[in-house]
Design a protein that fits this description.
6-stranded mixed beta sheet
């Protein structure tokens, strides 16, 4: 199973993004500054939009899913129960896991952004997609919900998971770090070694690196363990 971007170029009116990359099973983290083209790259990876140049090869990938940043964009039904069922999953199981089982007949558009996000992510994670691309999946979630979702994402080791995020504190177990620099997708490398060259690393990670400590991974547990080594 492999996703390959062969000399891909994405263009808009005032910028472009070049990508030569291969993604294999595991969890890939892609970061970059606001406006760098992360959402556009997510759409190209999943075939929603075609690149201006190059091609995207999905080798051995039968089932692709794109999770948009704003969950309301993917709502199609008039009740929460019907919305969950429309994803081809067991709606009762999903609503229980999302903490919404007592609101099954409610209009999903009346939910808060955080509730919509919980519903959306639980519908997606109820199926084992070969390629799962997520644009800011942790936004609007509280700390407990972020942790739960990250544990489930980190367990997808036999499938390709690509996570685009500006998240600063809570991450799943990451296998490889990528970032967008100067209009180009750059591979920082596998974790933990790739953390050293991660230019857009969040403040907690930068603090550890400045103290000479390299975390084993980016989960909250790994960052806490690394922080304990500063004064150890």
């Amino acid at each position: 199973m492999r996703l390959t971007l062969e000399k891909v170029v994405i263009r808009h009116e005032d910028w472009s993004l070049s990508c030569d990359a291969t993604f294999t099973p595991g969890v890939h983290l892609i970061t970059g500054r606001i406006g760098a083209g992360k959402s556009s790259l997510a759409e190209v990876m999943t075939g929603v939009v075609q690149p201006a140049e190059g091609r995207v090869v999905r080798d051995g990938i039968q089932d692709t899913m794109l999770s948009l940043q704003f969950p309301e964009y993917q709502i199609t039904q008039r009740t929460i129960h019907a919305e969950a069922a429309s994803w081809g999953v067991d709606p009762d199981h999903v609503l229980t896991r999302a903490g919404l089982s007592d609101q099954s007949e409610r209009d999903p558009l009346t939910l808060s952004r955080g509730e919509q996000k919980r519903l959306h992510l639980n519908c997606i994670l109820a199926r084992d997609h070969d390629l799962l691309v997520l644009d800011e999946p942790l936004s609007s979630l509280d700390c407990v919900e972020k942790t739960q979702i990250c544990k489930r994402l980190g367990a997808r080791q036999d499938r390709i998971t690509i996570l685009f995020t500006h998240e600063q504190w809570t991450f799943p177990r990451i296998d490889r770090i990528w970032e967008i620099r100067n209009h180009q997708l750059v591979c920082c490398g596998p974790v933990p070694e790739g953390i050293r060259s991660w230019q857009t690393a969040p403040p907690p990670v930068l603090m550890l690196l400045r103290a000479g400590v390299l975390p084993e991974n980016l989960t909250p547990e790994d960052l806490k363990e690394a922080a304990c080594r500063i004064n150890g």
